[in-house]
Amino acid sequence: MSYPYRSQYQYDRVPGRRRVVVTGMGAVSAAGVGTKALWDALLAGRSCIGRISQPAAGLPISVAGEVRDFDATRHIEAWQRPRRMGRVMQFAVAAGREAFLSAGLRTEDLQERKVAVMIGSAVSSYGDFETSAVQVEKRGASSITPTNIAASNFQAPAIAVAQMLKTDHVSAFGVSNNCTSGTDAIGNAVDMIRLGRYDIVVAGGTEAPLTPAVTSIISASGICTTHSIPEEASRPFDRDREGGVIGEGAGVFILEEREAALERGAKPLLEIFSFHMHPDMRRDLPGSGLEYTMRGALENASCRPQDIDYISAWGCGAPLIDRCETEAIKAVFGDDAYRVAVGSIKGTIGIPLGASGPLQLIVTACAHRDGVLPPTVNWRHRDLDCDLDYIGGGMRRARLRKSLINAHGLSGGNISLLVGSA
């Protein structure tokens, strides 16, 4: 099926275009708090999926990529009153703070710059809204306070991160587009910087979906595995995969215009060259739109398939979605599909919904920095329908030039980012 995937934006062909780089990043995941915890777990080939330890009454699932032993007061300054924040806000601020510090930014650096925060989430503060609904049912409408209102909207994580910056002139945006939300936020942030609307954008995704209503909705989709051994439950691209595992966490970045970043002495971690969004072409083939997002991202950056060394795949472990993504890669890359390394981080941390793509981007940045590709945890048996190089047998040394990051949503949305060493 042919489709006009070509975008109106040809970024590398626009004279004097503003280039966008990553100067800082922060993570909260099932591997722990911080980018190092995530990277170390992946390089060790360790699954961080386990039985849910949170109060799980009424949850239809028993295993998840849960963020364990998270103490918000250790990662969020006291003046922000971390205990009053919802879990999804806490993750965003903790990851945002790490990103801000790792970028070498100070509050005074923001005073003369146009700054925005854009945080994506599939379910965002739904858990807080769910709690408020139960509270109303038990105690009546008068029990609701302004704190409940502030914590229950989709903009809440972005507002909390903006407050962390301690400057008054920051715009805060929430993005909700199913599991591509955080990646969409990054793509939108790139455009905002390219167009000159902002100089610095704090962008990423955050999720805390382990609530009765959210897990029930996701479980009803039929994509969740019922595997009895938690550490082996998520098996991307493996012959014996049965479905995905829900995760939680956050991935947040400092994105800047390249010249301004270099001028202040920052060391870019990665450059974001392009991105492209596209829906699935058929409802019965989830992930089929990734063919067009990858084609569009390549076209927008004037790249060829031969220029790509690594694909951070969506690779969620659902049989049909993994197969469709594999077919999309083959359609775009042709014979090169068997040369390029394809990895998934879902065997380690599960699927943290809208935070998945941002966490994949963090792992890709670490791979470019260290010249190492992490293995796809739990990929052991080759599937005839999934026969690419999924990086089995431990981490691998590699010289990376450019990489693709894929994200897919249950609603049929897809996005691919094309990045490279800055």
Plain-language structure description:
With about 425 residues, this protein is an alpha/beta fold. The protein has two domains: about 20-265, Thiolase/Chalcone synthase (Peroxisomal Thiolase, Chain A, domain 1), CATH 3.40.47; about 275-420, Peroxisomal Thiolase, Chain A, domain 1, CATH 3.40.47.10. It has 13 helices and 15 strands. Strands 1, 2, 5, 6, 7, 8, 9, 10, 11, 14 and 15 form an eleven-stranded mixed beta sheet that branches. α11 (about 320-335) links the parallel β10 (about 310) and β11 (about 340-345). α3 (about 85-100) runs parallel beside α6 and α10 (about 290-300) packs parallel to α11 (about 320-335). Mean pLDDT is about 90; it is low at about 1-10.
Short recap of the structure:
This protein has 422 residues and is of the alpha/beta class.
Describe the SSE topology:
Layout: E1 20-29, E2 32-33, H1 35-43, E3 50-51, E4 63-64, H2 72-75, H3 87-102, E5 115-120, H4 126-139, H5 146-151, H6 156-164, E6 170-175, H7 181-194, E7 200-207, H8 212-220, E8 249-257, H9 258-263, E9 270-279, H10 290-300, E10 308-312, H11 319-333, E11 341-343, H12 346-349, H13 356-370, E12 372-373, E13 396-397, E14 402-408, E15 413-420
Parallel strand pairs: 5-6, 5-7, 10-11, 10-14
Antiparallel strand pairs: 1-2, 1-8, 1-9, 3-4, 7-8, 9-15, 12-13, 14-15
Helix pairs in contact: 3-6, 10-11
**What's the order of the H and E elements?**
EEHEEHHEHHHEHEHEHEHEHEHHEEEE
**What count of domains describes the coordinates?**
2
Distance between the termini: 35 Å
Structural class: alpha/beta
Rg is: 20 Å
Mean of residue pLDDT?
A: 91
Q: What's the name of the CATH homologous superfamily of the largest domain?
A: Thiolase/Chalcone synthase
